[in-house]
Amino acid sequence: MLDTFFESRERSQRDRMEIQNLSTSYGEEFMNELRRRANDKNLSPRDRKHWRRLLRKAEKTAE
């Protein structure tokens, strides 16, 4: 909750669009793809943090 409280509107919109694009591209498997990217040790820590943030947001909207 607090992580989105200090988030800019632009970042929030960008994240929503990226989640929507992934959903369109991967269909029902997009959550699995987000999990894979969030845990991919070949990615930089910064990139994994980005994917973990998107995964949290996608999980919240799926509830």
Main β-sheet description: none
Based on helices, strands and strand pairing, what is the structural class?
mainly alpha
Strand content: under 5%
Cα-based radius of gyration, to the nearest Å: 12 Å
Number of helices: 4
| Straight-line distance between termini | 14 Å
Can you count the beta strands?
0
- Name the poorly predicted regions: none
Which short descriptors sum up this protein?
63 residues, mainly alpha
Structural account:
There is one protein chain. 78% of the residues lie in helices and 0% in strands. It is mainly alpha-helical and 63 residues long. Helix 2 (9-26) packs across helix 3 (30-38) and helix 3 (30-38) runs antiparallel to helix 4 (45-62). The protein starts with a helix and ends with a helix. The mean pLDDT is 91.
List strands and helices in order, with pairings:
Layout (H helix, E strand, L loop, with lengths): L1 H4 L3 H18 L3 H9 L6 H18 L1
